[in-house]
Amino acid sequence: MIKKISSTETHQLRKNVLGENNPDYQFIYNGDDDQTTFHLGYFDGEILSGILTVMQTDETTFQFRGMAVLQSQHGKNVGKKLLDFASELVKPNAKTIWLNARKWVIPFYEKNGFTGEDDFFNIDGIGLHLKMSKLNTF
Ligand SMILES: CC(C)(COP(=O)(O)OP(=O)(O)OC[C@H]1O[C@@H](n2cnc3c(N)ncnc32)[C@H](O)[C@@H]1OP(=O)(O)O)[C@@H](O)C(=O)NCCC(=O)NCCS
Asked: Matching InterPro entries, A to Z (predicted)?
């Protein structure tokens, strides 16, 4: 089941999954508590096993960020379901959805309809990223 959660509820998974090898990982993001930002949680019973944050970056543009699935639940379509759910929610207002993909996760986003730009960029402590986006034809 997917439902909206608070920004604080994302912290543990962000820390453990996205910050796995990085004790300095900044698991609180700018904009987390903006009025137009929302956070989705995928629940297996009581257990929060996946998260995704959606931030509006202009009137018709939305950023997906903080995508993380519990290690033990990888490969069970939790990530895909979160992306699909979030895409449906923003669909009435979105022209474009974009995200910054970690290099090794690019094929996951490609499978889910995102296209990468040409140039990688580095985020200190995490590594190479690629900006990816999809237009509202999903
Ligand atoms: C990336 C992540 C969110 C994917 O979530 P998931 O629930 O494991 O993925 P799904 O089961 O929904 O995968 C859907 C499809 O993408 C594929 N896929 C998933 N992760 C992939 C990866 N890293 N590389 C290539 N393909 C991948 C799956 O094989 C599946 O393909 P299929 O439909 O052909 O079988 C998850 O692995 C994760 O949390 N990783 C660590 C944190 C992270 O890197 N987050 C992204 C930051 S940009």
From this structure: Acyl_CoA_acyltransferase, GNAT_dom
Residues written for the chain:
138
**Residues spanned by the domain of 124:** 2-135
Q: Which atom of ligand 1 is nearest to the CA of 105?
A: 23
What pLDDT score does 136 carry?
85
Candidate from 40, 72, 76, 105 with most ligand 1 atoms within 8 A of CB, to mutate: 105
In the chain, how many domains are there?
A: 1
Whole-model pTM above 0.70? yes
Enter the DSSP assignment of 62. Answer: E
Q: Which of 102, 104, 107, 109 is nearest to 126 (CA)?
A: 102
Q: What is the CATH number of the domain that holds 18?
A: 3.40.630.30
Give me the residues of the chain with pLDDT under 70, please. Answer: 138
The tokens 């979160």 sit on which residue?
A: 82
- The rounded Å distance from CA 67 to ligand 1 centre is 10
CA dist 134 and 64 (Å) reads 11
What's the pLDDT score for residue 4? 98
